[in-house]
Amino acid sequence: MAGQTPFNAQNAVISTNGGQYSALALPAGQNLVKAAPGRVFRLIINTAGTAGTLAINDAASVGAVAASNLVFTALNTTAAGTVYNLEFPCANGIVVTVPTSGVVSVSYV
Questions:
Q1: Partners of 90 in the beta sheet?
Q2: Distance CA 3, CA 13 (A)
Q3: How far apart, in whole angstroms, are the C-alpha atoms of residue 109 and residue 101?
Q4: pTM of the model
Q5: pLDDT tens across 37-76, in order?
Q6: Residue ranges per domain, the chain?
Q7: 108 φ/ψ angles, rounded to the nearest 5 degrees
Q8: Assigned architecture for domain 21-108
Q9: Taking a C-beta distance cutoff of 8 angstroms, is the pair 33, 94 a contact?
Q10: DSSP assignment of 7-73, as one string?
């Protein structure tokens, strides 16, 4: 595949530099970012949370979030400005759970 541009199932270019789309300023609670297969590239802490856990699940809906599809967790007190480089594939979808009082942004494809 050297020299070829990689495409996903929707014929969009797959970026290795940070994703093609973004979900900005996700508030506390469970947030459905994508209801189809995708890849989480970056997660940025905009505001640290006060209670609960920051998590990303490979799920096509908020109702499908379970311990068995958890792909990432971080402490609710992770400092604002922290950037996680994940580049993690999700077979079903992307749900981001933001802790109480927290705000995060993600890039994905």
A1: 38
A2: 14
A3: 26
A4: 0.84
A5: 999 999 999 999 999 999 999 999 999 999 999 999 999 9
A6: 21-108
A7: -155, 175
A8: Sandwich (2.60)
A9: yes
A10: B-TTSPBPPSSS-SEEEEEE-SEEEEEESSSEEEEEEEEEE--SBS-EEEE--SSGGG--GGGEEEE
